[in-house]
Design the sequence.
């Protein structure tokens, strides 16, 4: 039945349907239908289906298509292609699509966007390509975007919208409402208006609910709330996100160094920042570069991961040096070679647990100089308790397995040493890196592993040498 | 100078200052000053300093105090203690503070809050204590909270506010504005009003900016926007957060099974959910329970981590079994015992990289059935490329170190095998767990480690046995 439906009818049907399943994943049917239309170069059906879809859904669709199909889709949609969809895809995909387009076409698409979306789209292009596109924009857009790009990458100035409503302090509520009713060129969606002096210095804001509930003759200065939380345009987006989160803000005005209002940051942009930062932390803790994307090529991915594996190789060789210095003992008692990795691995896992909690607590500002020693003491105690527990378990199993109670005692003692050392390293290393202003999420791993591997092998084999008089 | 300042003057000074440094960390001076006032039981100064502080700052203060001081602070503040500060601290601290208070006192504090904050505070108490507090609340609050607790933990119904503005469809813009001006009992902060029929079935919403810009005689139904994204109260908060993020929502109406409006979810609550979910993923990938907090006791922490270490011990023993089955070869050639951990560890790290990316892509819905095979192929290729790279590096170093080129060849071959196996396991295991509806963030680790440890030892020692005819 469905197969015989003409494409346009199918486009009309799917235009009004939800493209996602209950888990929020794009339905495969949507991709199939679009691929069919692309195959037939059926621009009319495509426009019917895609033009009014939400940018997030179009972005998800682009991500699922092959690179050639992506470009064909953008081409067939022509002016109907909504550039905001490009803010919803990975950098790799975005750059691929943009590089296939003429600068004029990109400029036309960009001109319709708000500054924050335009910046997000142009940010990853190289200087030259970006300049070429900016030159083709209307003067006012060009000026706004050039100014945004003057702020450093990852700063509030790059994320803000420069569309906002500002009124002078001598206006009344009635004048503001009339202004809102009469102006055609207002932002799409706003929840507050700002009050500025003639030099654009911010005096405060009035929330729309307040405005609505006040009589017309009242002066805006009478209902204005002074800003307690403003953002400086050059501020790092992570710090801004943290402020939004802490104080449950919906938006915040952005000012330049002269305290002049230059833009507004809204929480939906901040949600993206929070998501990006969490993503970066998770990836870095897993030994992957923060910007690795699932759409990266094999070669880019392999190169990116090589570095981390190389650092790990060095730490592994360090640990091996310890093993090698005990060659005589290992040859004499091969059980030691068999069991040594258990000591290293248990210590490594305990250290990773501690490190994860420490890195996370540093990121959320829960761990600071004031409670650092309390946390260090706590971690060492936890390491000691679990060290004892695993000394008993592992020691018992090893004793029976190798029918040698002495081996149980040795591995038990080594486990206590290594779990305490691992816990100590797991919390001290991130604290030290943070003090040195190095991101502990990126750099703690290899140091911590080195500590537990070296301590694990060293304690186990030293104790064994001494106990068995090897 | 500062030391001689009377406490009340100091309280007045710090009341108007920012309590945080540039990094957003609470200034130690604030804690010192508060501790001083607690020591003197100087309630007046404390109230001056703390009563008007933002809940997030009071929360940060509570977190930094010792348990006894926390309770003394709450006691001295009395009715001036803002219960919303309890939503800003860890569960452990919250429960500790609440358990020290009388149910009447908690009920009084709770009664002033919005439902979402009240639910957040009472949620962690046990059934009985919660009931006791609810019984002491005014009937309307009690009813609202009981209803919220009827929804499952982690559902939208628990997170929503039940304070919202709903108007009938036959009203005009003028009537709505008059209603807003005249009603005393409106929510603190709102950005839209909802239009409902007499059965409270949701017809749509009107944004405040739209309302402001429309003439009084216009009917609300003429400017109403139909809801495209409603949330069902029983929906899981993670799915809701994902929807907010995807469609950049600021708020969404919550309906019951009968499509009746029961509440509203705002993005500031969702920011907390996103943060919590990211936190849970990071902790679980690091082998820590999702709800482990930095304020947990040593004993709770040790117990929570024991389970993960125990599972790891089993996988470590599995890998050891492989080593033990090669005891003869290890005894004959001790270099194998020295180098084996390198093979296991490089494979383990490559697998962790792949696993991190796969788990993350599953969480963000970027990895699904449609692109799974492409990603698996990509990961295996990456593993193969880095396998070759590290085979050359490690092989060369090992050859010179042990002055035996054959050992270099053997470890090189084993590394290629193990990096490919690790990459394959790192992506297939999370995919499989996800298909089985098990959270891959919690469970992938031990399986992946087992794969790389076993494959690492097995491939290295098998190749060595065959190459050296051991």
Sequence:
């Amino acid at each position: 039945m469905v197969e015989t439906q003409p494409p346009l009818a199918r486009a009309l049907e799917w235009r009004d349907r939800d493209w996602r399943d209950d888990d929020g994943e794009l339905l495969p049917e949507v991709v199939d239908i679009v691929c069919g239309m692309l195959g037939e170069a059926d621009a009319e059906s495509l426009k019917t289906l895609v033009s009014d879809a939400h940018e997030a859904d179009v972005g998800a669709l682009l991500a699922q298509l092959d690179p050639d199909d992506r470009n064909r889709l953008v081409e067939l949609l022509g002016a109907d292609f909504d550039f905001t969809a490009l803010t919803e895809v990975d950098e790799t995909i975005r750059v691929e699509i943009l590089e296939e387009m003429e600068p004029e076409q990109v400029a036309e698409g960009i001109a319709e966007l708000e500054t924050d979306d335009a910046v997000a789209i142009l940010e990853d292009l190289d200087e030259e390509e970006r300049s070429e596109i900016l030159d083709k924009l209307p003067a006012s857009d060009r000026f706004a975007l050039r100014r945004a790009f003057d702020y450093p990458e990852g700063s509030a100035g790059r994320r803000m919208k420069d569309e906002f409503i500002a009124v002078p302090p001598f206006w009344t509520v009635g004048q503001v409402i009339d202004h809102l009713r009469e102006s055609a060129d207002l932002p799409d969606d706003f929840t507050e208006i700002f009050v500025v002096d003639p030099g654009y210095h911010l005096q405060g804001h009035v929330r729309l609910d307040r405005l609505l509930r006040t009589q017309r003759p009242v002066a805006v200065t009478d209902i204005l709330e002074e800003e307690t939380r403003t953002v400086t345009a050059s501020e790092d987006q992570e710090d801004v996100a943290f402020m939004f989160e802490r104080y449950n803000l919906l938006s915040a005005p952005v000012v330049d160094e002269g305290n002049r209002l230059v833009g507004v940051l809204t929480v939906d942009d901040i949600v993206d920042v929070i998501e990006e930062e969490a993503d970066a932390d998770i990836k870095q803790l897993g030994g992957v570069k923060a910007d690795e994307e699932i759409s990266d090529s094999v070669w880019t991915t392999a190169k990116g991961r090589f570095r981390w594996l190389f650092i790990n190789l060095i730490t592994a060789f360090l640990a091996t040096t310890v093993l090698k210095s005990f060659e005589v003992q290992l040859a004499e008692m091969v059980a030691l070679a068999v069991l040594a990795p258990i000591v290293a691995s248990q210590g490594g896992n305990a250290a990773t647990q501690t490190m994860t909690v420490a890195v996370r607590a540093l990121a959320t500002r829960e761990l600071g100089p004031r409670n650092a020693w309390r946390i260090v003491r706590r971690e060492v105690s936890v390491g000691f308790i679990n060290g004892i527990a695993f000394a008993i378990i592992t020691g018992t199993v090893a004793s029976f397995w190798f029918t040698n109670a002495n081996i149980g005692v040795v591995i038990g003692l080594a486990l206590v040493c290594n779990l305490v050392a691992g816990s100590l390293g797991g919390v001290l290393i991130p604290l030290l890196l943070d003090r040195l202003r190095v991101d502990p999420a990126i750099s703690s791993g290899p140091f911590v592993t080195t500590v537990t591997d070296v301590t694990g092998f060293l304690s186990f084999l030293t104790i064994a040498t001494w106990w068995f008089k090897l």
Remarks:
- The longest strand of chain B covers residues 202-207.
- Chain B touches chain A through 118 residues (CB under 8 Å).
- DSSP finds 22 helices and six strands in chain B.
